[in-house]
Structure formats: structure tokens, C-alpha cells
Specification:
The structure holds two protein chains of two kinds.
Chain A (H helix, E strand, L loop, with lengths): L5 E10 L2 E11 L4 E5 L6 H8 L7 E6 L2 E2 L2 E3 L5 E3 L2 H8 L2 E4 L11 H11 L5 H14 L15 H13 L5 E5 L7 H17 L3 E5 L3 H7 L2 E6 L2 E6 L1 H6 L4 H13 L1
Parallel strand pairs in A: 3-10, 3-11, 8-9, 9-10
Antiparallel strand pairs in A: 1-2, 1-4, 4-5, 6-7, 11-12
Chain B lengths: L11 H41 L4 H16 L2 H11 L9 H26 L3 H9 L4 H31 L11 H12 L3 H28 L9
Helix pairs in contact in B: 1-2, 1-4, 1-6, 1-7, 1-8, 2-4, 3-4, 4-6, 5-6, 6-8, 7-8
The chains are: A alpha/beta, B mainly alpha.
């Protein structure tokens, strides 16, 4: 069994007195595609936001790719809160796709994708443009490279969001409800891109979604989060057809009925 | 006679026409003071805004205190302070620069609030995307946040431009020969205040209308590129 690429060790996340992650233990192996489902407020998005260093943790330790994410070792080998330098190095391993896309509205599609590679990785502009165009080919938007985000549909914007995250060559991709803000007819095109990514790359993928069918198709494992903990996890065929926990059953029933 | 230009007091109209070129000399100074003051307000205000937005309190608090002080004390006091007190410490500026600096500094406190509002209106998701892409804080501010904030703040900045122009006459108390001061001198010498002061009022009205139209034009022309303007 390989070492996990992501490991949450008794992680607690509090907002004031509200406990979002409750001594969470959670692991993901390299290359694994894991879907997180659960009711709102169960902490599923927080897991992604903690990994992307958008949300600091209150207690516990998070490991990413063999290193501590929110801590670094001092001279005596003791863990202390990580400085910005350490966080920047760790962030390079991760890419994130947001529910609201969060494209930069004042930049063209291509510039959205080249901005970070040129500024952060120091890739020459011409090379970055070439890579951006390759990525746009992959998400089927090459001809829209010179447009601005507001000229695109939501589905197209989200595909740009995926290309932008991939341009930083992360080892781990985080998808935070990538289709929740889309009109129903636009969901498919985004899911197809994610599906191809899952099938063709050895990326580690962590996905929060309400698209149960999609989760079933692409995931190696589905985790049901409840009250800041993993209540139940299993391969999709097992979790969706034969959930062990009453709360999982209730949640799946509610979601399937609303679809 | 002023600036080598003589006036003709034979009739009201002749007087008005003869002093117009003199008043326009003053207008040039008024415009210069407005432009320099506004430029200082724009640059220094942005610095205040950036400092006040800093995560470290030892940075943000002093900036907040200084801007509060600049905002809550009269411009005239700040002007006197720069003009009469600074020379005691060996800093002697020409009257015009003193005046423009005082205007710029006081208005920098106002513009910093405009910047702040514009910056805070940029959605949190933009900061998060920049962070996720590992962009540095400074790069995020100059290339992600500011370009989205600027189109939002142009109307408010335009109001302050007009406001600065209307405050320039205060500079007359430190001997700057701006338009109102010129008109007053003409009045003192001819005992006719009605015509020069009315003309100054009229010229001000025209200038303000032009400036407002210019700001509206800029606001319409500036590409918004899907930036939500609320």
C-alpha cells in the first residue's frame, strides 16, 4: 500500500464556536479519484478549502505529498505554524476549481491561464501561451482564447477554470461543486472534461459534488461526510447501492428524490 | 494693472472684458493646483488604502490614524501648518507647492476611503483564485484587485476632483495667486468687486460642468469587461 498523498490527522476546524471539521481523519492515495458527498454544513467544502490553504485549521495536522501543509518543522524538529514561504511551496502541489469559477473578469481567457505560470513559475510568455492553447484545446475552447469571461457561458467559464488550474501542473486537483452554479443543460460539458481528466491522467482528484451519477462513474471511492467527519466511505457501487449508515441512506434518498 | 495687463473702467462690459485675461491667468494657477493636488490625492490615497488593508496591525493602524486626522481637521489648519510651521524645521516650500500638497494630503484621506470601498467590492472569490494560483500578494493587488476596483471608483473620484477645484481658493490665504485671489486684488484696486467675483463664479461653474462631463465620459468609455458594478 502506497503512502497517502493527502492525510488529515485529527483535524479540527472551528468558526468561532461552530465545529466544521471534528477530529477528522481522512486519507487519499496518489492517483485516487475521491468524491465527497454530504449535507450542507457537513464540512465537505472546508476539506478542499483547507487543502488549498484558503482556510487555516484549528487543530491537528494535514499532510500533503509527504509534508505538513499548515506546519513546518523548526530547528528542533518541532512543528510550528507554517510561514508564507512554506505555504507557497505546498500550494504548488494543488489546483482548485471553484463553484463560482472565479475567473479574472478583466483578463482574456488566455491571459487567465497564462498569468500564474508566467508570474509564479517563471515560464516564458510564449511558452505559457502555447501551453494555454493546448489546455484550451483539451477543454474544447481554443477559439475562445481572446474573449473575456463574461462573453462565455457558465459551462465554458468553468472549463476555462479547469484549464487555468491545470496550467500550474498540480499533482492534486480539487473540484468544489464545479457544476452547482450551472444551468442544467451546461452541466454535461463540464463533467465530460472532468471525466476525461480522470480517465487520462494520473492526477489525484478530490471532488465535492451533488451529481451522484457522475460520482458513481468516475470515483474510486465515495466519502459521506456528516458533521465534520467521514461517516461512511466505500467504492461507489457499494456506497450508493448498499449504504451501511442510516444517515447515509436518508441523505441519498433525499438527493435522489430531488433529482 | 495686474500681470502687466491694464483694465478699462469706462463701462461695466469694457471692465469685464479687460479683466478676463487677468482672471484667466489666475485660472491657470487654479487648474495647476487642482491637477497637482488631485494627483497627490490619487497616489497618496492609494498608499493609505494599501496600508490600511494590510494584515499587520502595526501597519494598518498608523495609516488609519493619520487618515482620520487628515479628514477630521480643517484644510485651513493643515495649510497653515505646512506654510508656517514646516519652515521652522528647515522645510521651505513655495506657496503653490505648499497649497497643492495640503489639498492633496487632505483629499488623500477621502480618496483612500474610495479606494477601500472599491477594493472591498472585489469579490472574495477573486482573492481566493489568486491565492490558489499562488500569485504573490503585491501582484494580486496590482493586477487582479486594482483593475477591477478602478472602474467602480471613477465616479466618486470625479466628485473629489471637482471638490478639490472648489477648495483651491483657500490657497489664497498663503498668497497663491489663484483665480479668486486675483479677483479680490482687482476688486481692492478698482473698488468694483461685483464684476470680478461674478466672473469668477461663472468661470467656476463652467469648469465644474466641464469636469463633470469629462468624468461621465471617462466612466462610459472605460471598458467594464463584465466587471459587476453595483
Amino acid at each position: 500500500m502506497t503512502e497517502p498523498i493527502i492525510k488529515f490527522d485529527k483535524v479540527v476546524k472551528r468558526f468561532d464556536s461552530f465545529v466544521v471539521l471534528d477530529e477528522l481523519d481522512f486519507e487519499v492515495r496518489p492517483g485516487e479519484k475521491v468524491t465527497i458527498i454530504g449535507p450542507s454544513g457537513s464540512g465537505k467544502s472546508t476539506v478542499l478549502r483547507v487543502l488549498m490553504t484558503l482556510e487555516p485549521i484549528s487543530e491537528g495536522v494535514v499532510y500533503v505529498d509527504g509534508d505538513t501543509l499548515w506546519h513546518e518543522k523548526d530547528a528542533n524538529g518541532r512543528l510550528r505554524p507554517a510561514g508564507e514561504g512554506h505555504l507557497r511551496r505546498m500550494r504548488e502541489k494543488l489546483g482548485m476549481v471553484f463553484q463560482q469559477f472565479n475567473l479574472f473578469p478583466h483578463m482574456t481567457v488566455r491571459r487567465n491561464i497564462t498569468e500564474a505560470p508566467t508570474q509564479v513559475l517563471g515560464i516564458p510568455r510564449a511558452e505559457a501561451r502555447e501551453r494555454a492553447d493546448d489546455l484550451l484545446d483539451m477543454v474544447g475552447l481554443r477559439e475562445h482564447a481572446d474573449k473575456y469571461p463574461h462573453q462565455l457561458s457558465g459551462g465554458q467559464q468553468q472549463r476555462v477554470g479547469i484549464a487555468r488550474a491545470l496550467a500550474m501542473r498540480p499533482k492534486i486537483m480539487l473540484f468544489d461543486e464545479p457544476t452547482s452554479a450551472l444551468d442544467p443543460e451546461l452541466v454535461g460539458e463540464v463533467l465530460n472534461v472532468i471525466r476525461r481528466l480522470a480517465e487520462e491522467h494520473d492526477l489525484t482528484m478530490l471532488l465535492v459534488t451533488h451529481e451522484m451519477n457522475f460520482a458513481q462513474q468516475i470515483s474510486d471511492r465515495v466519502c459521506f461526510f456528516d458533521r465534520g467527519k467521514v461517516l461512511e466511505q466505500a467504492p461507489p457501487e457499494e456506497l450508493f447501492t448498499d449504504p451501511k449508515q442510516e444517515r447515509t441512506r436518508a441523505f441519498l434518498k433525499a438527493v435522489l428524490e430531488s433529482n | 494693472m495686474l500681470f502687466g495687463i491694464a483694465w478699462d473702467t469706462s463701462s461695466g462690459w469694457a471692465f469685464a472684458i479687460s479683466i478676463l485675461p487677468i482672471l484667466l491667468r489666475g485660472l491657470v494657477v487654479t487648474i495647476q493646483a487642482t491637477v497637482v493636488g488631485f494627483f497627490i490625492a490619487l497616489v497618496v490615497g492609494l498608499v493609505w488604502a494599501a496600508l490600511k488593508a494590510a494584515p499587520l496591525r502595526i501597519v494598518s493602524w498608523p495609516a488609519a490614524i493619520v487618515t482620520e486626522f487628515l479628514r477630521d481637521t480643517p484644510l485651513l489648519i493643515q495649510l497653515f501648518f505646512l506654510y508656517y510651521v514646516l519652515p521652522e524645521y528647515g522645510i521651505v516650500l513655495p506657496a503653490f507647492m505648499t497649497g497643492a500638497l495640503a489639498l492633496g494630503l487632505q483629499y488623500s484621506a477621502y480618496t483612500s476611503e474610495v479606494y477601500r470601498a472599491g477594493i472591498e467590492a472585489v469579490p472574495r472569490g477573486q482573492h481566493e483564485a489568486a491565492r490558489a494560483l499562488n500569485l504573490k500578494g503585491m501582484r494580486t493587488f496590482t493586477h487582479i484587485v486594482l483593475p477591477q476596483a478602478v472602474p467602480r471608483i471613477i465616479p466618486a473620484m470625479g466628485n473629489y476632483l471637482v471638490s478639490i477645484m472648489k477648495d483651491v481658493p483657500l490657497l489664497s490665504v498663503v498668497t497663491v495667486l489663484e483665480m479668486l485671489n486675483v479677483a479680490r486684488i482687482i476688486g481692492d484696486r478698482t473698488f468694483n468687486y461685483l464684476i470680478p467675483l461674478s466672473m469668477v463664479g461663472g468661470i467656476y461653474l463652467i469648469m465644474t460642468l466641464i469636469a463633470s462631463a469629462g468624468v461621465r465620459f471617462l466612466d462610459m468609455r472605460l471598458p467594464k469587461r463584465g466587471i459587476p458594478l453595483k
